[in-house]
Amino acid sequence: MSAPPQIARRRPISVDHALDAASSRTLADDALDGLTQPFKQLAPKHLYDARGAALFDAICELDEYYPTRTERAILEREADRIIASTGAGELVELGSGSATKTRLLLDAMARADLLVRYVPVDVAETSLRESAERLVVEYPSLAVHGMIGDFERHLHRLPAPQARRLVAFLGGTIGNFRPGSRRRFLRTIAALLGAEDRLLLGTDLVKDRATLVAAYDDPEGVTAEFNRNMLRVLNRELRANFDTDRFDHVALYDERNEWIEMRLRSRGPQTVTLEAIDLTIEFADGEDLLTEISAKLTRERLESDLAAAGLELTDWYTDERGWFALSLSRPA
Ligand code: AVJ
Q1: Do the Cβ atoms of 169 and 97 come closer than 8 Å?
Q2: Can you give the pLDDT at residue 5?
Q3: Which of 9, 46, 56, 110 is the one with CA 20 to 30 A from 212?
């Protein structure tokens, strides 16, 4: 049965807002907590204003930064198999960004004649709306129901499912969580899944130190600029006076925890004031501000984290070198 052609299609895009005034407090709260601790730190989500998102896109083009292109190659090869084994008609994507890898999944869903709806979740309203507009043109039968929100806090506000669901969390962003919060976050995702729904998770894997460090410390200094962008965000949003030239980018691999740490190291002693939160802090010469951890996993560790969250790993897709993996899991 087809609809009469002269009837215009109902507008296929809707967008919910989960970010409210209280949410814009998180940077202030995080800064107040994180910058007054003996080991200064700030959550990596604050790296991504418009400039930070553009710098991250530039990182993804670097020769040294293998995760993006490795994950894309796996998706290109396996998308049909992934979709066949899930039967999903609805794709929920956490941290959708510019939604470039999304197309590979939507294409596979369309080929399997399953595609119903795309549900992107992102804090960046502009890129979410722009990609939604493009996608509904590219996929004429697709509905997009976006949510502007923080996937760490707002997943309970997702719209009710319209088809079997595939929740995708790509790019290796799961690595930004420390082990305990990783399990907690996976539990939150597990709670979104019905018996037939699946999680598709992109994870960067443990590998030799040199490859890892090069990926987070490129010679062109793009990652360094991305890292320093945290200070620009603080300068603008919290009326701070960080001198970005006086912080060095540091990427180190902590072999015991198997994670990369990205830090900003103070060159010389400095005093910084964040006017908006009425805070003055001191940096000693060589003192670090931790801006990101990026954990590298093994299949075994991921399986045990998933199990602790009530999920069972069913499929494992990786590249020839075993550098990056996509996995499918289901409620146990
Ligand atoms: C977007 C979190 C997956 O950890 O590799 C890239 C961010 N940081 N270069 C990562 C990042 C430095 C990236 N994730």
Answers
A1: no
A2: 60
A3: 46
